[in-house]
Specification:
By secondary structure, this protein is an alpha/beta fold. Helices cover about 40% and strands about 15% of the residues. An eight-stranded parallel beta sheet has the order 1-9-8-6-5-4-3-2. Strands 7-11-10 form a three-stranded antiparallel beta sheet, with no helix packed on it. α8 links the parallel β8 and β9. The model has no long low-confidence stretch (mean pLDDT about 95).
C-alpha cells in the first residue's frame, strides 16, 4: 500500500490529541498518508476517531499503537511530592503512578477488525501473532525502530517496513527497552546515520523520521534510501492539528531549546525546555507510571496557559515550522523536494 501512495510523505502519529482525524484525513486526501495516534486513548475514543476519519476521506490512513513495556517497581513518593508542589500552582494535584497496558490488546483487536490499511507500532515490536493477523486482513505492518538491533527484531517478526527514528525527532523515543542509565534510553543516532546502519542490516523498506520540516529534508532521506519521509513536528502548527494554543504560541516565539527528558512521562522524549523539564532532569525511567502521575498537572497547566508545566514535544527544527493547512503544507513539501533533487542532480 505504501508503494501505491502518490506522495512518499507521512504525517506522523502524535498522541495527546494532536493527530486529529481532520489532520490525518487532510494529509491522506492530499496524496500522502495520514495517521491516527491510539496512544493514551480509550478503545471507544479510537473507534470514534477511525469512524470520523473515514467520514472525511475515502483515502487510506494509518493507526499507531503503543506497545506496553514491563512495569518498574520504584518508590515514587519523592517524585510525587515534586509533582504535587508544581501542580499546586494551578490548584491541581498528582495522579496515581500506576502501570497500565494502554488497552493494547483491545486496540490491536480493533485495528484488525477495522482492517486499517497501515498499522504501526511504537515502544516495541508487536507479537508475531498480531503481525500475522494484520497480514491476513490486508494491513501493512510498520515497526518504529532506533537501532539496527531493533530493526532486526522487527524483520524477524515479519514487519513490512521499519520507521527509522533519528535522535532529532520530537516526542517520545521509540526505544524498545529504555535504558535508565542513558539520557535517550539507548544509542543516539542522527537520522541519516541510522538509515545507513539499518539498511546495512535488514532488507526492509525504510520510512525516515526525525527533524524533517522542509521539502529539502524529504529529498535528503529519499536520496539516502528511504521510501517515505515521516513528519511530525512540521504538522504541529497545521490548521487541523490539535496542538494546544500555549504550545502553538511557544513554537511561534521560537525561543526555547529542545532536550530529551523523562520528566513528564518516565520515557525519554524530546520537548521544548521549560521549568519542569529543567527541575526534573533526574526523573526515573518508569513509563507509563510518571505519565499517569503528571497527567493532572499537565491538564491544569494547559487550561491555565502555563508553558512551564506542559510537555511541549517538538523536534530540533521546530522553529522552521509553517502554520498552514495540512494540504497546502504537503503541496509545498513536494515542490520543495523536487526542487532540491533537481538542484542536487545539477551539481553532480
Amino acid at each position: 500500500m505504501m508503494a501505491e501512495r502518490g506522495i512518499p510523505l507521512i504525517a506522523a502519529p502524535m498522541a495527546g490529541g494532536i493527530s486529529t482525524p481532520e489532520l490525518a484525513a487532510a494529509v491522506s486526501a492530499a496524496g500522502g498518508l495520514g495517521f491516527l495516534a491510539a496512544g493514551n486513548l480509550s478503545v471507544e475514543a479510537l473507534a470514534a476517531e477511525i469512524t470520523a476519519c473515514r467520514a472525511l476521506t475515502s483515502e487510506p490512513f494509518g493507526v499507531n499503537l503503543f506497545v506496553p513495556g514491563a512495569p518498574r517497581d520504584l518508590d515514587f513518593d519523592g517524585y510525587r511530592a515534586r509533582v504535587e508542589a508544581a501542580a499546586a500552582r494551578h490548584g491541581a494535584g498528582a495522579g496515581s503512578p500506576s502501570w497500565d497496558d494502554d488497552k493494547y490488546p483491545a486496540k490491536a483487536e480493533l485495528v484488525i477488525a477495522e482492517r486499517i490499511p497501515v498499522v504501526s507500532f511504537t515502544f516495541g515490536a508487536p507479537e508475531k501473532s498480531i503481525v500475522d493477523r494484520l497480514h491476513e486482513v490486508g494491513s501493512e505492518v510498520v515497526v518504529t525502530v532506533t537501532t539496527p538491533q531493533e530493526a532486526r527484531t522487527a524483520a524477524a517478526l515479519g514487519a513490512d517496513l521499519v520507521c527509522v527514528q533519528g535522535m532529532d525527532a520530537g516526542g517520545h523515543r521509540a526505544v524498545f527497552n529504555d535504558d535508565a542509565t542513558l539520557p535517550g534510553g539507548g544509542p543516539l543516532f542522527g537520522l541519516l546515520a541510522a538509515i545507513r546502519l539499518i539498511r546495512a542490516e535488514v532488507d526492509l523498506p525504510v520510512i525516515a523520521a526525525g527533524g524533517l520540516v522542509h521539502g529539502a529534508d524529504v529529498a535528503a532521506v529519499l536520496s539516502a534510501g528511504a521510501v517515505a519521509a515521516q513528519l511530525g513536528t512540521a504538522f504541529l502548527v497545521s490548521d487541523e492539528a490539535g496542538t494546544q494554543p500555549t504550545q502553538r504560541a511557544e513554537i511561534a516565539a521560537g525561543q526555547r531549546e529542545t532536550a530529551l527528558t523523562r520528566a513528564f512521562s518516565g520515557r525519554p522524549a524530546r520537548g521544548m525546555v521549560n521549568r519542569f523539564l529543567t527541575d526534573n532532569a533526574d526523573a526515573p525511567a518508569a513509563y507509563p507510571q510518571l505519565n499517569n502521575l503528571t497527567k493532572p498537572m499537565r491538564a491544569a497547566a494547559g487550561k491555565a496557559g502555563d508553558p512551564e508545566l506542559l510537555s511541549m514535544w517538538a523536534g530540533q527544527t521546530y522553529t522552521q515550522t509553517r502554520p498552514l493547512p495540512a494540504a497546502e503544507l504537503v503541496s509545498r513539501l513536494v515542490e520543495e523536494a523536487r526542487q532540491a533533487l533537481e538542484q542536487a542532480a545539477a551539481r553532480l
